[in-house]
Amino acid sequence: MVKSQRSQNLPRVVITGVGLTSPNGNSLAEYRQNLLQGVSGVVPYEIRHFGPTVAGVCEYEATRYQKRKALRRGTRAGSIAIYCANEALRDAGLAMADLDPSRVGVYVGTTEHGNVETEQQIHEVSQYDFDLSFWSHHHNPRTVANNPAGEVTLNLGITGPHYAIGGACAGGNLGLIQGVQMLQLGQVDFALAGGVSESIHTFGIFASFKSEGALGEHEDPARVSRPFDADRNGIVVSEGGCLYALERLEDAQARGARIYGEVIGYHVNSDATDFVLPNPERQNECMRAAIAHADLAPEDIHLVSTHATSTPLGDVQECQAVREVFGDSPTTYVNNTKSFIGHTMGAAGAIELAGNLPTFEDGWVHPTINVENLDPACELRGLVLNEPKRVERVDHVLNLSFGMLGINSAVVVGRFRA
Length: 418
Description:
- The chain is of the alpha/beta class.
- The protein has two domains: 13-254, 3-Layer(aba) Sandwich (Peroxisomal Thiolase, Chain A, domain 1), CATH 3.40.47.10; 265-411, Thiolase/Chalcone synthase (Peroxisomal Thiolase, Chain A, domain 1), CATH 3.40.47.
- It contains 14 helices and 14 strands.
- The protein has helices spanning 28-37, 68-73, 76-91, 115-126, 139-143, 147-156, 171-184, 203-211, 249-254, 280-293, 312-326, 338-341, 348-356, 359-362; strands at 13-21, 42-47, 51-56, 104-110, 162-166, 190-197, 240-248, 261-270, 303-305, 333-335, 364-365, 389-390, 396-403, 407-414.
- It has a ten-stranded mixed sheet, with helices on both faces. Strands 2-3 form a two-stranded antiparallel sheet. Strands 11-12 form a two-stranded antiparallel ribbon.
- The longest helix is centred in the first third of the chain and has 16 residues, at 76-91.
- The radius of gyration is 20 Å and the shape is globular.
- The model has no long low-confidence stretch (mean pLDDT 96).
């Protein structure tokens, strides 16, 4: 039986800052506006050895928080994480001078890390007949799994714990969950937590999805990612990141912080059935357990942010699970963010949650776009399509992220109530 956080008398943890870069926005305000206005961030893209395709590409100002030398030495994932961490701190109304650096934790979810740097180095030495004197001595620190989180600590002077959580495409949710847990355990007093992805810079990601027949195509790049549409044919690979400033409620209130929402429940489980194919029964169990952990019933969830990636089978399986959990609940709405920005892999859970947080205040649910012909197998009551919907009230958001090797994650964020 899942015990609720309330029954365990755990400290309440709230979100007080959001730092992000996405293919269609480099701040929460810009990103949210583009979600409500139907603006896609998917563009034509080309990668060495693969050729023309499409991708979700971020255009953030990397030198805002890093010198050019640091950018050359580090990684794209590390740079994204640094940008998001600094933006989250600023959004929370804090600077590192306000915090004890030994009591700050950094928890970054990733799908994979290091392939980009290794592919690049192999290409470079191949130009010199594999003379390894041309191999970068920065390669090892660039490719270790903790790199994105570690680069944040170097940039900000954080001396508390840091690590990356390898959770496939559930990584963004897992980073957030880890931050919450460490605050509740009293291991840190402030956390920067979420997920990042640099996946568009590696040939292997595109080649693998292409070989699986899972890489989406359409004559219009902005319409390639189309979850729930009957003509969907695969994913869009994207980069991006989102890190949250997390605090225990008492600390946030003591300094008069603005609170975006409270993380009131979560759950992670495993399919144990297939390397790639999802298991709707396990997804169902994951959702129900997260809702129980939040001490809620399914009808208390007013918005479900789906993982749906625009693959033919994956979307159907997830919709089956959502339908079984929420049935015909008249107060539960459903949307999807990948239709706007593609699949940001390890960052997906964190970025997708961010786009729905403002719903607590403004009452607008952003839609799933690009659905011209809804697949009957994906039909759900409350599915918001193509145009935003104004709703009476949203008190609880269920954020879903699932990944390869059958990892499922669900996070419940609630409207803050004192």
